[in-house]
Every structure is written in C-alpha cells, then in structure tokens.
C-alpha cells in the first residue's frame, strides 16, 4: 500500500503481541512490533516465579471471566495448549506439569521469550524497543501510529498493550484509550489475581499468623477454589485467595474452610469422649498449622479440656475453622495484581479475528481485552490464542 511502511503494526511486545507478529509474519506480512520497554516479554520473563507457567492442559472457557463468556470459545478452540506445547518442544525446551494441569519450564522463563523472538526473527518481523506509542489515527488506507521515534504507517493495527497490572513494569492504559478513541465500549477494569487486605482490627488479631500457609477451600458465591492460602502482614494471599479475588466484589464476603478435608465437628465430638483430657489447641494442631491452631483455640479457651466443651461450643470451633466468613477490606491493587479484569468489551470485537467490528483493520488481543483467566497458565493461553487468531487475519 502507498505510504505504509508495514502491513501490520503491533503495539506491545508481550505474549499476545509476539504471537500475533509470528503468525502474521508466517503469512508473508511485513510486521513491526513496537514497545516502550527496554526488553520484549518482560512479564513472561518474571512469570511463574521465573519458570513461566506457559499454559494449562485443562484450559477451557469456564476458566475465564468476561462480561461475554462465550467470546473466548472460538479462539481457545482454534489455538490450544497442545499447539503451544508443540512449539515449545520444537525449540527443545524442557517442561513439566507442576499441579492442576499447570505447565512450567524446567529451566527458565527466559527460554520462552527467546523462543518467541527467534520465531519472530525467522519470519522477518521487526521489533522496535524503547519506542513509546503516543497516539494513533485512522488514515484512508489504514492507520498512522505516532511514536517517540516518529510516525509509522500501517494497514492493520493490533493493540496488544496489556492491562494495568504492575505499572512499574510498563503497564499503561494506552489500549483502553485507543478503544475509547474509536468509540469501543470498555468493561470497567479492576485488579484480578491479587492479594486481599483486611481491616486493621482483624489484621492485628491475625498478625501472629503472617507467613503461615494452609490448604484451604475458599468460596465467593457459588465459586470455590481448593488451594493453598497464606496469611500475610497485609491480609490474605496464596493461590486460593488470588483465584477468589477475581470473583470477589468490594464489600462482599468470602467463606474459608481451613481444614476442608475433615468433618471437624464429628472429630471434635469424638475427641470429647475419647480424649477428654486433651486441650483444644493440641487437638486442632492435628488438622491445622500449629500457630493457626493455637490462635483459633485461644478465642475458644486454649487450655480448656475437650471434655468441658458443649455441643454449641464445638460448633463454634468448627465454624471458626471451616466456615470462617471474612469481609476483606479491599484488593491490594494493580501494584501486585497479576492481571486486570475488564477491558475492551468483547461485544465490539469479532471472536474469530479479534477485529473491532466498527473499525476494519483494528484488532485487540491479550489482556487489554475483557477476557481474564484463572491463575495457572490460563492467561498466557488466552494471550497465545487471541494473538494467533489476529495473526491469521491481519
Ligand atoms: P503484556 O503486559 O505481557 O504486554 C504488553 C506490552 O505492551 C508490554 O511489553 C508493555 O511494555 C507494552 N506497552 C504498554 N503500553 C505501551 C505504550 N504506551 N507504548 C508502547 N508499548 C506499551 N500468566 C500465566 O498464564 N502464567 C503465569 O505464570 C503468569 N505469571 C505472572 C506473574 C506476574 C508477576 C504477573 C504480573 C503476571 C503473570 N501472568 C501469568 C499474567 C500474564 O503475564 C499476562 O496475562 C500476559 O502477560 C498478558 O499478555 P499481553 O501480551 O496481553 O500483555
């Protein structure tokens, strides 16, 4: 096309943008990826504790939150975990399943970044780092992208600039601003997969537990996660809490079972008859980490012998351990959130191409879109899948 240096400009060299560039490059498109960061794929590099939980074997639409839950079905079925695994294996990257279908590199997350950059290079896609996108405008033939390094003309523009999480790593609201500029609706954004804080009085009581981890079952409404929970100096964290944080709404409560496998009421009753001289603290320590057991026991009479407990008192202990209703003060915020919930409203996008229905040539992929996965490799799978789909269409 006249005046256009590139067929495709991708804003954002993250998981989604790199995948899109590779696929568009394979189709012979002249592709440029721009990013204001010093290095590509920074979130990939730090992900999964440095080992990148790059996909999840069980990835299915039910593992994603969106105002329009059916939108992700097409992309997730067209590009599946097995497709990304095949790519990883072609590059000789060793991997393992940690738990619950979560796949990690044996070595380092850096291998995934290097793999994507090698694939990009192989198809001749160009990468310009330390190039901030200032604004974009529609032209007769496509788009003009104004960057800190000058204006770039292109036929298709792919917005892969991510969400608002971890601003110190370069997250900006650019993608949402571009959507608004073109009249696309935005689903209100909020931090997801984030630790929850507690009110000062409760926090003070729980201070001795900072650092204690327990296998818990955590519920918000009808949604439940059975994973580890961690007490922190600010509140609650750990996988179970991060997962439920995406479902929890400000002002609401969550219900926590800290000995979910045990019929605690029955166990306590039996202990009352069979081990009447034992203290509650000692008994609870058989089912809970010791520090937690002692704190729970303290508020029910730590040294009281089991024989002295009424049925009502035993029920109260069971409720404190397995039906603990907590009203979190709030999420910790974007500073520590792994993802951003909400984003570009998918009703304005084509689910096969990620193209804005009202703006031909403009595509949105990855976290900037209102599709958010659970913890456990689901968010990268969405980034790969949505990036792959746009890459077939641009
Ligand atoms: P991503 O945020 O990766 O990329 C966006 C890019 O756009 C960035 O490189 C940014 O610099 C650039 N950009 C933004 N504004 C710009 C501007 N104005 N001009 C130019 N460039 C701009 N998920 C998972 O599945 N498994 C895991 O193990 C983890 N682990 C994990 C750990 C931590 C600490 C975090 C914060 C997140 C995770 N995640 C995860 C989530 C996962 O990292 C996230 O969902 C994807 O990186 C999203 O990919 P995107 O490509 O959409 O955005």
TrEMBL record:
What's this protein's name? Answer: Aminoacetone oxidase family FAD-binding enzyme
Domain named RsdA/BaiN/AoA(So)-like insert is located at: 190-339
Q: What cofactors does the UniProt entry give for this protein? A: FAD
Q: Which Pfam families match?
A: HI0933_like (PF03486), HI0933_like_1st (PF22780)
Annotated keywords: FAD, Flavoprotein
Q: Is ATP-binding tagged as a keyword?
A: no
Lineage, highest ranks first: Bacteria, Pseudomonadati, Pseudomonadota, Alphaproteobacteria, Hyphomicrobiales
Q: Which residues form the RsdA/BaiN/AoA(So)-like Rossmann fold-like domain?
A: 7-392
Q: Which InterPro entries match?
A: BaiN-like (IPR004792), BaiN-like_dom_sf (IPR023166), FAD/NAD-bd_sf (IPR036188), RsdA/BaiN/AoA(So)-like_dom (IPR055178), RsdA/BaiN/AoA(So)_Rossmann (IPR057661)
Which Gene3D superfamilies does its entry note? Answer: FAD/NAD(P)-binding domain (3.50.50.60), HI0933 insert domain-like (1.10.8.260), Translation factors (2.40.30.10)
